[in-house]
Amino acid sequence: MKTDLPFWKRKSLREMNRAEWESLCDGCGKCCLLKLLDEDSGAVDYTDVACKLLNTETCRCSDYKNRNRLVPGCVLLSPGKLEHLTWMPSTCAYRLLHEGKDLPDWHPLVSGDAGTVHSAGISVRRRAIPEMLVDEDDLEDHIVTWPA
Description:
Layout: H1 7-10, H2 18-23, E1 33-37, E2 44-50, E3 54-55, E4 60-61, H3 67-70, H4 93-98, H5 108-111, H6 116-119, E5 129-130, E6 143-144
């Protein structure tokens, strides 16, 4: 296999080291939006409400190291879990690579610029609202279709 190819084209998700794995995150923040699960159909609806730890301007977790302890529902991604995380956004690099697709041009690893995820309109920047500003009973009023 050619060694001049970027790591995500040379390695499987399971072969990546921690730094490579972490760099796949494009910083869109979509996975940090609160979701509603229809228990009958299994359908997942995204809301425009962001987890309390998501900085809605930078689209990064404010306490990444402790996120799972502070937000019990926070999912720690791993290659083995991707098959079951069908709610991951279609633009997510982890999902794309798991499905055998390539990274889009706006992905920071391709563009070389962390801002392209925002300038391409992929991130939740200026579209999500912090969880603490919304009553949990009103989440259905915040369902959106743009994250998918």
